[in-house]
Each structure stands twice: as C-alpha cells, then as structure tokens.
Write a structure and sequence with these properties.
globular; 2 strands; two-stranded parallel sheet
Length: 90
C-alpha cells in the first residue's frame, strides 16, 4: 500500500505542477483523476487502488466522484483513437 500510495502522490504532484505552469492556479478538488487498472483485477483489487488514492491525498473518500478507475484495454483503446491521424478518425 505504501509504495502504491507514494507513487500516486508523486505522480499527482508532478501533474499538478505541470498543470499549474500551463494554466495558472489549479484547484485539485476539481480534477477528475483517471487511474488505469488491469482488466483482470477483482473488485477487491480496485478497492485497494481507491484506498491508495486516499492515502496519496488524491481523493477524500472511497466513493469520491473525482476518481475514475479505467480498465487498461479500454484506456489504451481511447488513447489510440485520440492519437490516430485525422484521416483515420474520419
């Protein structure tokens, strides 16, 4: 738990720093965090990730609306569509 929570904390802090550089003041409670998890993970594993996000200070409670757990294959598919050339999108 400690390793995952510290990793999430570091990544979120770096993300907030970068966002602040680009847009100015950032209110972290208005950010919707999306964490990808393996598709084979059980609900227990997903619950673990939510608890790690709380420990990292990303969310305040297990049912926080600003955290979305995305299955890795779905996240990869969405990113591939976003990265594809405009002619392929059409």
């Amino acid at each position: 738990m400690k390793v995952i929570a510290e990793s999430l904390k570091y990544i979120s802090e770096k993300g907030l720093e970068k966002l602040s550089e680009q847009v100015g003041k950032v209110v972290s409670t208005k950010i919707r965090w999306v964490l990808t998890v393996p598709a084979l993970w059980s609900e227990e594993h997903k619950h673990f990730m939510r608890k790690a996000a709380i420990e990292a200070g990303i969310i305040e409670d297990l049912n926080a609306a600003n955290l979305l757990l995305c299955l890795e294959p779905e996240g990869a598919s969405i990113q591939c569509r976003e990265d594809s050339e405009e002619s392929l999108k059409n």
